[in-house]
Sequence to fold (387 residues):
Amino acid sequence: MKRSQDTFVFTPEFGARLRDLRLKAGLTQLELARAMGRAGRSAGNLVSRLERGDERYPSFGLVADFLRGCRAGFRDVLDVLDLYTDLPTTQQKVFSRALAKVAASVPQKWQSQVEHYDRHFVHPKAAPRPGTEQPMPDRTARLERARKMAAAARRRYLYGQFLKDAVNAAGIESVMVVQKPLFDHGLEWFRILFETRRSRTETREQRLARSEAEFVKASRMAVPVVRSIQDAVRRRFAEMETSGDLDWLPDLSLGEYEARLLAPARARRPEQERHEEFVRKLNEHEAARKAAVERVWTELQTVLDEAGVPKERRAIYRGVVGASCTAAMNFAPGSSEERRQLDEYILEPRWIRLGLDTALAQKLAGIALARLRELAESFPPDPRPKR
Fold:
């Protein structure tokens, strides 16, 4: 049976956890392979592939044998496995991608409304009764509601764009306290026209007349100005009805998303595997390096405390640790290259103007260099070629 690209793949994080368990047990890869009941000169390669994450679809029994050989249990890897099982299901991913397409079909300012509406639908306010199971909402119905929400957002956008121009063209005073009420009145007329488009048509003129009377009374605006906007709204509404803008709905086909997610995973080419291995090793090395820099920076706080450097000015000394790390990783101790790397930062006029004490910076660099070289001995190897 072919596997979809959305099925479980043995991750490097899982492999790293297995490696940690082996090291904690004090076993070499070959010793663990033998403890797993695997024999032969290449038995250690199986353990190595597992720890690198290259055994993409290991059997349940193989993982169980690995844990048994380390005298560990599934409880020791559950948190890593839960990272996968907590992911959305394939069906949820199909739905999410389709919903994102629906939201993308309206102007950006309205997209959050479509997405917020969906979240509101997923998490109803009413808590389920004790002992009852919360029913799973029908995703097709949810998408249809989202489509209608997107269509409504697009109509509001089109109404708003038109009314801005119509209100400006009315020649009334250009202040918000005058224009905003007239703009809102135009939106109300659009709403009444749309609501009475196919049902309650007999109430349309009555509702429009009542809306006009209430607005004129509240705003005390000249009736000819108000009616000019109302006439423009009627004309624009008729144009949108004729052009099909009032019936527009975003295109939606779940099939294309489902087919894409369920397509068989492609076999990895050798060069792709080599690139992924290089990236994995580089990420491991960089993570260890960054952790060492943070650790050394934390340890140097006592030196800054003794020197009386206030906390708000310590940021300018932070770069000394970074420069020291680069020098420690790339140059021999006491070399001219090491000195040049540090001086580029310590003697930079900009930092000196901000209050960097060069003598204190030199002292910090000396401590940091020694400490970083000590920590670097435990770093995963850097896969990049040496300069």
